[in-house]
Specification:
With 147 residues, the protein is α/β, with parallel strands linked by helices. It has a single domain, classed as Rossmann fold (3-Layer(aba) Sandwich), CATH 3.40.50.300. 32% of the residues are buried.
Length: 147
């Protein structure tokens, strides 16, 4: 697994890092997000969506669990914070979204449990100060050690 870290001091800087990652994303990619409440996961995702279509309004799907954005490729934004257990992913059709050919973005990815995709990107956001974040982006492939 390869990874790169960034330190950002504003939401605008976080958005710039997100746009960098977005430029690398292709149909079928999965991005797994990790970080505490308020770490900036949704802000980062807003930056990803801005790259694909700046007119799309991004909201956290905390209550709906998934938002579908009409971008090319289509983007599916999951927020698993309220997930009762990993079996709820089956009820959502999570595996079908993974096979859809779109880009899948998953907040609170640690809740995927046994359904965590074996390949994709990981984004870890850590709060360092009121506006400062450390963002670590990694790439995990099916054939990587530890995948």
């Amino acid at each position: 697994m390869s990874q790169q870290s960034y330190v950002t001091n504003s939401e605008a800087e976080t958005t710039a890092v997100a746009r960098e990652l977005a430029a690398q994303l292709q149909s079928g990619d999965v991005v797994l997000f990790y970080g505490s409440l308020g770490a900036g996961k949704t802000a980062f995702i807003r930056g990803v969506l801005e790259y694909f279509d700046p007119r799309v309004e991004v909201t956290s799907p905390t209550y709906t669990l998934v938002n579908v954005y009409p971008t090319k490729p289509q983007i599916f934004h999951f927020d698993l914070y309220r997930l009762r257990d990993e079996n709820d992913l089956l009820d959502l059709g999570f595996d079908e979204y993974l096979d859809s050919g779109g880009i899948v973005l998953v907040e609170w990815a640690e809740k995927c449990g046994r359904f965590r995709p074996a390949a994709g990107y990981t984004v870890i956001l850590e709060i360092e100060g009121e506006t400062t974040r450390t963002i670590t982006i990694g790439r995990v492939d099916d054939d990587s050690p530890g995948a």
